[in-house]
Amino acid sequence: MILVTGSAGFIGYHLSKHLLERGDSVIGLDNINDYYNVQLKQDRLKQIEDHPNFIFQKLDLCDQEGLNNLFAKNKITRICHLAAQVGVRYSLENPYQYQKSNLEGFLNIIELARQYKAENFVYASSSSVYGGNKKIPFSTEDPTDNPLSFYGATKKANELTASAYHHIYGLPVTGLRFFTVYGPWGRPDMAPFIFTRKIIDGETIDVFGHGKMKRNFTYIDDIIQGVMLCLDKPQPCALYNIGNDRTEELETFIGTIETLTGNNAVKNYTDKHSVEMTETWADIEPIKNDLGYRPSTNINSGMKQFIDWYREYFSK
Ligand SMILES: NC(=O)c1ccc[n+]([C@@H]2O[C@H](COP(=O)([O-])OP(=O)(O)OC[C@H]3O[C@@H](n4cnc5c(N)ncnc54)[C@H](O)[C@@H]3O)[C@@H](O)[C@H]2O)c1
Q1: Residue 14: CB within 6 Å of ligand 1?
Q2: What is the pLDDT of residue 116?
Q3: Is residue 43 part of a domain?
């Protein structure tokens, strides 16, 4: 049985669905917090909750008793730990939520992973750990001691914790540094969603970094391909970038949405916030070579699938 934490979230929902479709049994855990639209989280869950091999537990990562019961009652063999307080800017407003979910919550899950001798512990890190690094593409060999946000710092702390747990207890751990994931059922707080919504509604979009920021947008199915490869092949102590092999300038990205929606964007060019990175670009050679990861969705076809979903879901 595979435990997927954050299963009402964007990536956790898609992962659970793919695992169920190929015949795995999944326990999904999520506290369904209200950081963004709760209805969207519930609607994601509705897509999978009736599956006979799916169990959902509404549980907080800080509820130690609840977690202990969950592990005692179910034979959890593999864990994909995705639940976290997400968002780079929100970590300025509410840092303690990141401390709770991303530090304390992470420790609670990895502790149970080692107590119950999990066969594999895969967890989400983030491109945010690269902070203001200038060398691109970002490699997992590069130093990551200067994150630009507390969110990035919590993800770096997760990587260090996982490495220590491997060293002390021999727990097989794989960390995945995700790069700007987008696609159907995506996150309303992220640029692909915000730009699409505002361009369709004719609202002004804030274009940070005057359109020169670059992002390594990665389509959800490609991310899921990579996560499943990692789940299926436990490694002693691995850390991978998981992204796309090209990076897009924000201005070009907005142009793609304009073409696909048939609407022109109304733009307000503005400076980049100090917690935001100027450019992200993943060196994905290691995960390609070790596991055969092959991202295959370009921005045009990925955004088309996102916009089709968006229009249907919101009746736009
Ligand atoms: N989406 C991206 O582009 C991206 C990029 C880098 C890293 N990540 C990481 O990937 C993981 C999944 O991200 P996502 O985009 O699916 O985000 P998401 O917010 O959609 O999903 C996270 C889920 O975790 C749940 N959660 C948060 N705190 C919890 C707690 N204390 N107890 C139980 N559940 C809790 C939330 O309710 C949410 O449903 C996160 O760890 C995130 O930091 C995502």
Answers
A1: no
A2: 98
A3: yes
For every residue of the chain, which 3-state class applies, written as one string? Answer: CEEEECCCCHHHHHHHHHHHHCCCCEEEEECCCCCCCHHHHHHHHHHHCCCCCEEEEECCCCCHHHHHHHHHHCCCCEEEECCCCCCCCHHHHCHHHHHHHHHHHHHHHHHHHHHCCCCEEEEEEEHHHHCCCCCCCECCCCCCCCCCCHHHHHHHHHHHHHHHHHHHHCCCEEEEEECCEECCCCCCCCHHHHHHHHHHHCCEEEEEHHHCCEECCEEHHHHHHHHHHHHHCCCCEEEEEECCCCCEEHHHHHHHHHHHHCCCCEEEEECCCCCCCCECCECCHHHHHHHCCCCCCCHHHHHHHHHHHHHHHCCC
Q: For residue 83, which atom of ligand 1 is closest to its CA?
A: 24
Express each pLDDT in 263-307 by its tens digit.
Answer: 999 999 999 888 888 889 999 999 999 999 999 999 999 999 999
Number of domains in the chain: 1
Q: Please indicate whether residue 105, judged by its CB atom, sits closer than 6 Å to ligand 1.
A: yes
Which residues have a catalytic role annotated?
A: 151
Per residue in 43-64, pLDDT (tens digit) is: 999 999 999 999 999 999 999 9
124 Cβ below 6 A of ligand 1 = yes
What is the domain extent for residue 154? 2-179+218-245+281-296
Question: Is the residue at 67 inside a domain?
Answer: yes
